[in-house]
Amino acid sequence: MIESADGAGTTSGASTVPAPTADTLLVPGETCWRIEQAERHAVFVDAADYFATLKRAVLRAERRVLFIGWDFDPRIRLDPRTPGRAREDRLGRVLERAVRANPRLEIGVLQWDLGMIVALNRRMAPIVLLNRRTPDRLRFAVDMHHPVGGAHHQKIVVIDDCLAFAGGIDVTADRWDTSEHRDRHPLRHRPHTTRLRGPWHDVTSLVSGPAARALGDLARERWESGTGEHLEPVTDAGTCWPEDVEPFLTDVDVAVSRTRPEHGGTELVHEIELLWLAVVAAARRTVYIETQYFANRRIAEAIADRLGEEDGPEFVIINPRAASGWLESKAMDTARVKLLALVRAADRHDRFRLLVPVTEGRQPVYVHAKVTCLDDRLLRIGSSNLNNRSMGLDTECDLSIEARTGDDREEELRAAVLGMRHRLLGEHLGVEPGAVAAAVEEHGGSLVRAVDALMRPTGRSLVPFQPPDLAPVERFLAETELLDAEHTPDRWRRVKRAFGGRRRQQRG
């Protein structure tokens, strides 16, 4: 055990760390909350296909739909590529149509309270006013049950407790884009304006079966904490997998990992941070990461620790060029400069890359995805970023699959992890996934050397992140972590001892 755990899977952080015996990184009560089977599992890269699928799934829902989100905008279009009246494609209209067509259906939307400030800035009607204009079975609520400065950062949609989306994509404005990431896309704009927005990269996942029911439990718990209303599970809905969605995997175990801050009598849960540390500790060849920020000192120091080893792993991190918003830039971009210097100083063997995707016209693509691929062993898709608040202050939800040695489907799962890594890198580099796989093989299994070889000086590609010079105030913010303080105990040494022995030979 990494830490002692109660029956609900919360961690107290009080015990020592005997070495684990099982060959797995996903340990319920430690690095995850629960492991449940997904009858079907799919991955949506970028929001265009996700939003279109979400629309169809909501309109087919039988009993209940729960939206649990950091932000929510009922004015966005869900499927703008399909002909039809724009008004009827807007999220709010779709929800209203769903409940009016089905008298048994209830829809709940729970949004972080400070997210409403963002909504008001976008000239969106407050949720309290939306409630007055919608049917009784369509309810909008604001969630204020969090610590001061904290956010409800999960992005979950659960349909009839048999289908659940979870990952990094908020059902709000500025998220819609295709994987082409065109320099100018006529459909990539905010509601009620024709001003085009920049390219946006994001990832979420879809599960059915027991894994979806587990996310239903989490969503209903969150709904009750935010509204005081207790909801029973949905037990009488039919099979609800969207027929037009090709599963990524079937009958696969999925781990749910959480961050839940200490607040209102609940204990700290930092399974996500422990999983991050376990991934770094157990890495054999390569850790591939897509994240909005690189601003967590503890993870950066763990990476630096591994980079200092003679035979340590490579790390390839995909980041946006700059955080969106003034406050985020001051908090996260300044920390990134400091931590990047720390990591590069430790990178004696040239095994670290921090890269930014650019379009055909060399415009930076904003990276909002939260993805980790550990060797050919583990794939994690979720809401957590590499910053301090995602580890202990905000609520987060990540889903992981793992290839375990000796499992009957080990080879299939290994191929799936690598396939997703190469699909994502292919998107960023403007090449087919097979070209990424071939380059890795050509360079003796080195992902760093493969990416270096595939990067181009013109057109769509990846470019090295160039840290800016910090002004005195920015250096102060970076040194003090004033805008993004740590909220969890340091477990790196314990986790490294516990999971470092699991570095078996990988083919990734």
TrEMBL record:
Gene3D superfamilies: Endonuclease Chain A (3.30.870.10). Residues 148-175, 363-390 form the PLD phosphodiesterase domain. GO terms for cellular component: plasma membrane. The keyword Kinase does not apply. GO terms for molecular function: phospholipase D activity. Pfam families: PLDc_2. One of its GO terms (biological process) is phospholipid catabolic process. Residues 1-22 are annotated as: Disordered. Keywords: Hydrolase, Lipid metabolism, Repeat. It comes from the Bacteria. InterPro entries: PLD-like_dom (IPR025202), PLipase_D/transphosphatidylase (IPR001736), PLipase_D_fam (IPR015679). This is Phosphatidylserine/phosphatidylglycerophosphate/cardiolipin synthase. The lineage of its organism: Bacteria, Bacillati, Actinomycetota, Actinomycetes, Geodermatophilales.
